[in-house]
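Hi there, hope your week has been kind to you so far. It would help a lot if you went through both lines with me. No rush at all, and the record is pasted right below:

***
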Amino acid sequence: MESSDAIEAARARHLAGSERLAGWLWPFTRLVALALGAALLVRILLVQPFAIPSSSMAPTLQAGDFVLVDKQAYGWSRASLPVAADSAMGDEGGARLFASPVAYGDVIAFVGPDGRDYVKRMVARGGDTVELRNGLLLRNGLPFPCTPNGQDICHEQLDNGRSHLVHGRAQGPHANFGPVMVPAGHLFVLGDNRSHSADSRVPTSEGGLGFVPEARVIGRASHIFLAYDKGVRWDRIGTPVD
């Protein structure tokens, strides 16, 4: 009898301990779940960090830079999801909530034809004719001057007042390109490092990006929030992406 009472007492103590543990764990678990949910919403709706792995956007962005992408800039589409299935998005169409057009000269993040994320500069949209002559960019026959600004770097001026630095514009196999008309619902993007960027000048069949469907745009690169190359590059942190 005493043995049975001892077993029951031990069971009661175990249950009481389990209830106390559950009472402590539940608020903690709920807090963690709420924090993760809030972080996911911020990532989907507001900003998303992106790492720059190469020099294709130099000198504007350098390998080792980490940028914040504003996901409100052009509205939200399936590409806004943290994991966007390449086959689910398609090449064109796709609803975009609160859509706004990409401005000429914007540095945008988008889902490439291989399902990976890319960051490039948009210079032409559907209906535009784009061409490069010895590195000089033309849109609809209008040339955009590039004023020398250091060794193999020039300052490219677009017709909407936007300007940015370009590296190696007259070098490489794609310094002459086009003219081609950008299909409706697509964008033409270039890397600022013109001689080392497999961008819209290179068809997808050759490992390039080709024309970028607007439905695949994630957002606009806004600021550098971290820069690291054998140490933190403090001078680049907080720099706006122009």
Remarks:
- The longest helix spans residues 2-45.
- Helices lie at 2-45, 86-89.
